[in-house]
Amino acid sequence: MNKIWLIMQREFLNRVQKKSFLIATILVPLIFPAVIGVMAFILMKQEKSASISVVEVLDESGKMSFENSSRFEFVTIQGTLEHAKTTYTESSHFALLYIPDFDLSKPEGMTLYSKENPSIRKIDELESLVEKRIHDLKLEQFNIDKETLKSLKTSVNLKSVNLSATGEEKASNSTIFYILGFALGVLIYMFVLIYGMQIMLGVIEEKTSKIVEVIVSSVKPFQLMMGKILGIASVGLLQFSIWALLIGVLSTAAMSLFGLNMPQQQAMEQVMQQMDDPEMAEAAKSNEKIMNIMQSISDIPYTYIVFNFAFYFLGGYLLYGALFAAVGSAVDSQQEAQQFTFPITMPLIIAYFGLFMFILNEPDSTASFWFSIIPFTSPVAMVGRLGYNPPLWQLILSQVLLIGGFVFTTWIAGRIYRVGILMHGTKVNYKVLAKWFMMKN
Amino acid sequence: MEALTAKNVTKRYTQHTALDDVSISIPEKSIYGLLGPNGAGKTTLIRIINQIIDSDSGEISIFNEKLNPKHIGTIGYLPEERGLYKKLKVGEQLLYLAQLKGMTKAEALEKLKVWLTKFEIKDWWNKKVEDLSKGMAQKVQFVSTVLHEPKLIILDEPFSGFDPINAQLITNEILELREKGSTIIFSTHRMETVEALCDHIALINKSKKILEGPKKQVKDAYKTNTFLVEHIGNNFTLPADKYDLLEQYKIEDNYHHSTIRIRGADSPNQLIRDLVDVTEVHNFVEKIPTMSEIFITLVKEDPSL
Fold first, then answer.
1. Does B100 touch chain A (CB under 8 A)?
2. Would the CB atoms of B79 and A209 count as touching at under 8 Å?
3. Same domain for B236 and B211?
4. Could you report the per-residue pLDDT of A233-247, keeping only the tens digit for each?
5. Rounded to 5°, angle at Cα A42 from A172 and A52
6. Which structural domain, as residue segments, surrounds residue B276?
7. pLDDT digits (tens, 9 = 90+) for B25-59
8. Which residues 6+ apart lie within 8 Å of B293 measured at CB?
9. Using CB atoms and an 8 Å cut-off, which of residues 132-151 of chain B contact chain A?
10. CB distance A214–B77 less than 8 Å?
11. What total number of domains does chain B contain?
């Protein structure tokens, strides 16, 4: 055990001290905030002064009244439309809302003047504000008591929010979980491939540099193999942790730099706002879709996902890593390795396609079930299903089988490895591998 | 005491037998030559001693203890196929290998200082192995073999790849290590090395041990009662029932060389007496077989061939 630890440390340090590791570890996360930064910048351009837009209101009807919100500040002006237009163009205000004298049953002629093309969202918001005011006026016109109206409105609004929220939420959740499943599945696929190759190359290097005979006179071949596999696993975990951390920190930094909040925060604020101020509920309705997505992002059961992801991440890596080590031990060069790496990567590639064809679209189908149960495909498949809340018994079955799977591949790989690393210049095919496997120690 | 004994060690692979009932015993503080042609089974035996592979049957003891994982630290092994981690620095590499042998880091550092100073390679500490010449890398490898002060040192073709100066350096180190109490096993088919250094030998051929013993004894056993004589004149005859004249040639003028074998139980003195009567003897020496001759004779005569 002590020696596995030593080898693990060595493998870890060897790789972590390399310049290429440092560069990859630092550069990759920089790409994400850069992309987010650019996006935020564009967004900001679109919604200049997104926080509060000042809207001038020229109300010839005298019926309108708007309350300032966190998004709009309304400035009532007097005078002719022409005059208002000139003053508006000279000002830095967002828009000029012109309301002519109108008939309540047929409201027409309302115009929004602006210097640039305002976003559809903003127009929507303003429209619903106007609509709501007219709606109120109509109720008044039909002699509905204002107090009754108010209480009635409140309850109605609350109810509608809840109903639509549940309805919408489901739809948007599946989008989120599709993206989540996609990202996690691809991440595992890439991790297993990249780091599996690293194991293989490491073993080939030890073999071709002939160091291996010295090493195995001090440690058991199995210890050497496990030390290498675990050492590289820790490199991978470290790299991903740094990435996750850096991406998180830098993205937050990039967002706050451009005056945006983290999605969760924003969603929370909007929810709060909605609860405090039922009047705003309808205005916020246009945000509902985005909000629901934000909401479901914050609704993701993070601990559950992180724990299970880490499990499949390691399980899949160990399962395939052992096989890659066996291939490395059997061959004398990287070129020779290709004939063996193909059959190993095959199930992984099948799992990758299965992820798109079955798992993400129909997470509860029979195909998805088998994909997420068989240890060779389950690491990619099951993380794809995580968001869709797979039945607990399937999750447990899949994990137990995965543990069994990597114990099994490690056992097979160990038997091939112990013979393979000491063989040079043999023409290796599957028959030879089988012979090595059967060989007594 | 025996540094190592192997009793009836057998190792079979599916297609061939690598070691067939081999027994050897290596006395403590000896330099033991493990000889044999390529593919005879030397490396298999060495790997079994190093616990890299297991034997099918038979038993190996080291200093009267049954071979077990504890002995990893007792043995220092320099395989024929040399190798170090190319990208690793000399210092880190030696520390790592020493720790794998069971030394603590502090111990290893202390010992390393001594060895690196001795070999004048102290300033290589931060050099990567890939930047070293072959000879330099060999030195590093030798240090890694003996750093943990093994009581049993196994050297597989230790001089291949060394220039004469480094070979001499290593030879001196080997002799010094023996003085300090280590037992050394040489696996080689370089007979000069065996001739110069070994005091015991074993010959393995076709998976079987066909000869073992102290070098002197082996040589004596293979003496053929043949003598090399230099003399004046060649027109003489010796009694043909007593002697075989194997070879005769002229060295210069009337100065000749003869190789003569005594057929019966006569002593060399009798041969001298007989010679003195017929010619003027200038030089008389017994022909002692070289290890190379014994090796070739035995391997060629081996009935299993």
1. yes
2. no
3. no
4. 999 889 888 887 887
5. 80
6. 224-287
7. 999 999 999 998 888 889 899 999 998 888 889 99
8. B222
9. 141, 144
10. yes
11. 2
